[in-house]
Each structure stands twice: as C-alpha cells, then as structure tokens.
Amino acid sequence: MIVAFSVTPLGVGEDVGEYVADAVRVVRESGLPNRTDAMFTSIEGEWDEVMDVVKRAVAAVEQRAPRVSLVLKADIRPAVTDGLTSKVETVERHLAE
User: Fold this and answer.
1) Count of beta carbons in the 10 Å neighbourhood of residue 97
2) Which stretch of 21-25, 58-62, 77-81 has the lowest confidence by average pLDDT?
3) I want to staple 32 with a disulfide (CB 3.0 to 4.6 A). Which of 3, 45, 72, 89 is the partner?
4) Residue extents of the structural domains in the chain
5) How far apart are alpha carbons 55 and 26 in whole angstroms?
6) Which helix (H) or strand (E) segment is 66 a member of?
7) What family is it from (predicted)?
8) CB neighbour burial string for 47-64, b if at least 16 within 10 angstroms, e if fewer
9) Is the distance from CB of 50 to CB of 1 less than 8 angstroms?
10) CATH of domain 2-96
11) What is the 3-state secondary structure (H, E, C) of 13-32?
C-alpha cells in the first residue's frame, strides 16, 4: 500500500516548515520507502506499519501545534511492492513514447 499524506499545523502562523520537518523526520526514521515533495509525503508498506507512521507523524506535529490538519490518500493493492518507483517509471515510459 502507498499512502500520500500531508500534515499541516494550524494556529502557528504561515511559516510551518519546521513543524512539517518534525513529521517528515518520523517518516524517514521509520525505514519504510518514502518520498517527500512540496505538497505530500508518500510512504509504502503494510497497512498497520504505514498507519502507525502516519499516526506518529501527526503526533510529532501535535506536540507543538494547537491544531493539526491531516489529508490522506491511499492506494491499497495487495502483493504490489516498490509502487513508489514503478508507478512513476510507468508514466515516464509513456511520456518517452
């Protein structure tokens, strides 16, 4: 499964990068395959392990922000691995044709 999620601290002003970094740090330390871009962090693994990381990432931001917003999108495909890479490679292959 791949989960793309965004954790946003509310009530802390416009500069939220250091709060977001707290969440991304949790994801990177999890050891699961992941990618972060300007809008979302994607993480790949089994349901329970991915959701645990998301929960801990939210908790990291929640420690310093009075309110937290979470946006989450999941691609649940049993027996598929390395989706973070293979899905992008498929699109790139079609673009190259």
Assistant:
1) 4
2) 77-81
3) 45
4) 2-96
5) 10
6) none
7) Belongs to the UPF0045 family.
8) eeebbebbeebbebbbee
9) yes
10) 3.30.70.930
11) CCCCHHHHHHHHHHHHHCCC
